């Protein structure tokens, strides 16, 4: 059987995809394997989840969700998707501080690549992790908790340390939030007031197709309705109906807008759990720069707007607060990220990526690990303080490279 990622642009080279029903089965599979890797929900766009050995999907593990109300944390099975348990957290009076654009992504896969939402005060989803249970190369089940010297290196682990069978996440009190969309933000207003605009809500996303001198939409997510900007805002107009981030697409797939408050898990993602957000006919890339450089980076990209716009379905500008996780693209710096949803034209997109990476190189750009990029190990090494430390950890936990694959081997050496 042929296995592909969600977008269908990657056909996995794995001989087999196992779907164990218990953690002990995961241990036996890993212990007996040559090369092996965990597969999450397959939402990455590059070969990060691929292997020439065997893949293990945890979607068949018991759907463990253990809420520890006294400690404000939850332990969830590694194969669960955020949308599988977010309603239960809300019902118990809790929330996660943030979510990505869709709730269909597995927690373990999202954490492994530092998946993020937006918000100048919100770190990536990986920052909520306080503990990992993982099956290491010998088939041992180990627990790594915050405070362990290797913790900051292992959370955003790119699947290189083993199969994460459970994660413990810090919780915050449950909250409601409303979202408003603003249409047609003039580019000069964005350039003049970017920090204020990006900081105008709990979570703000600016969308542009690079086709006009206006940024198509700004999504502002509450939390308090009275704090949300008025109907005319920096030359943009509050939308009079629901919007889809990709102009012209069906808005039924999107979470409720127009200022109607609702539980955090039904407003923070752009897309609803009960709809498949698109046909998967897309590719994605995302590039992180220091938030202070967002306007300079925007202006640099604007110089190739004519080359980008035919390939872009939409481009989203988000913010991510600095965090201490070694390989997070927001490691140690408050960041702004330029996310691109491309049309599914791999040759054209991969030809343009080095141009974008070069334009953003003055800002020490870091790519999203789960999306398309072309910059090499030598470049990436200069962009992370703990790159060599991460390589040392890989060598320590998996000296034989059982969890290695072409993607990891290309970007990291086992020191
Ligand atoms: C439509 C769409 C929207 C997206 N929106 C966002 C967004 O808003 N923000 C953002 O930052 N990213 C976003 N992404 C990217 C996505 O969040 C990342 O690619 C993420 O890694 C996907 O998680 P996954 O479970 O599908 O992982 P996979 O793609 O299956 O795997 C990714 C990596 O995680 C590892 N992994 C998976 N499960 C485990 C496990 N149990 N143990 C150890 N390692 C594991 C894999 O080995 C691999 O290295 C989006 C992607 C799509 C397709």
UniProtKB/TrEMBL annotation:
InterPro entries recorded: ALO_C, FAD-bd_PCMH, FAD-bd_PCMH-like_sf, FAD-bd_PCMH_sub1, FAD-bd_PCMH_sub2, FAD_lactone_oxidase-like, Oxid_FAD_bind_N, Vanillyl_alc_oxidase_C-sub2
A GO CC annotation given for this chain: membrane
UniProt domain FAD-binding PCMH-type: residue ranges: 10-174
GO molecular function: D-arabinono-1,4-lactone oxidase activity; FAD binding; L-gulono-1,4-lactone dehydrogenase activity; xylitol oxidase activity
Keyword annotations: Oxidoreductase
One Pfam entry name: ALO
EC number of this enzyme: 1.1.3.41
Secretion signal, residue range per the UniProt entry: none
Name of protein: Putative xylitol oxidase
Enzyme class: oxidoreductase
């Amino acid at each position: 059987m042929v296995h592909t990622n969600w977008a269908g642009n990657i056909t996995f080279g794995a001989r087999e995809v196992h779907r164990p029903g218990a953690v002990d089965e995961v241990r036996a599979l890993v212990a007996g394997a040559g090369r092996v890797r965990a597969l999450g929900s397959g939402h990455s766009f590059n070969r990060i989840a691929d292997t020439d050995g065997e893949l293990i999907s945890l979607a068949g593990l018991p759907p463990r969700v253990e809420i520890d109300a006294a400690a404000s944390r939850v332990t969830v099975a590694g194969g669960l998707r955020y949308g599988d348990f977010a309603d239960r957290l809300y019902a118990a009076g809790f929330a996660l501080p943030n979510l990505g654009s869709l709730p269909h992504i597995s927690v373990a896969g999202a954490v492994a690549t530092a998946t993020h939402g937006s918000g100048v005060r919100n770190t990536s989803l990986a920052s909520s992790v306080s503990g990992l249970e993982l099956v290491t190369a010998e088939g041992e089940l180990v627990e790594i908790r915050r405070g362990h010297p290797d913790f900051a290196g292992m959370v955003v682990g790119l699947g290189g340390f083993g199969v994460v069978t459970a994660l413990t996440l810090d919780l915050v009190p449950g909250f409601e939030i409303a979202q408003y969309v603003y249409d047609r933000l003039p580019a000069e207003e964005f350039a003049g007031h970017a920090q204020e605009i990006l900081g105008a809500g709990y979570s703000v996303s600016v969308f542009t197709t690079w086709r006009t001198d206006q940024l198509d939409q700004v999504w502002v997510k509450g939390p308090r309705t009275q704090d949300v900007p008025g109907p005319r805002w920096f030359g943009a107009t509050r939308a009079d109906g629901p919007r889809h981030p990709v102009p012209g697409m069906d808005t039924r797939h999107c979470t409720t807008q127009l200022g109607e408050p609702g539980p955090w898990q039904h407003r923070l993602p752009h897309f609803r759990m009960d709809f498949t957000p698109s046909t998967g006919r897309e590719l994605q890339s995302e590039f992180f720069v220091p938030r202070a450089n967002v306007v300079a980076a925007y202006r640099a990209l604007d110089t190739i707007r004519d080359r980008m716009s035919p390939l872009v379905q939409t481009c989203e500008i988000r913010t991510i607060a600095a965090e201490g996780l070694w390989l997070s693209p927001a490691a140690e710096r408050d960041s702004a990220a330029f996310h691109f949803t491309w049309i599914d034209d791999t040759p054209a997109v991969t030809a343009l990526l080095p141009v974008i990476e070069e334009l953003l190189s003055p800002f020490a750009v870091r790519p999203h690990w789960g999306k398309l990029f072309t910059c090499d190990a030598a470049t990436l090494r200069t962009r992370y303080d703990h790159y060599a430390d991460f390589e040392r950890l890989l060598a320590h936990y998996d000296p034989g490279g059982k969890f290695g694959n072409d993607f990891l081997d290309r970007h990291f050496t086992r020191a």
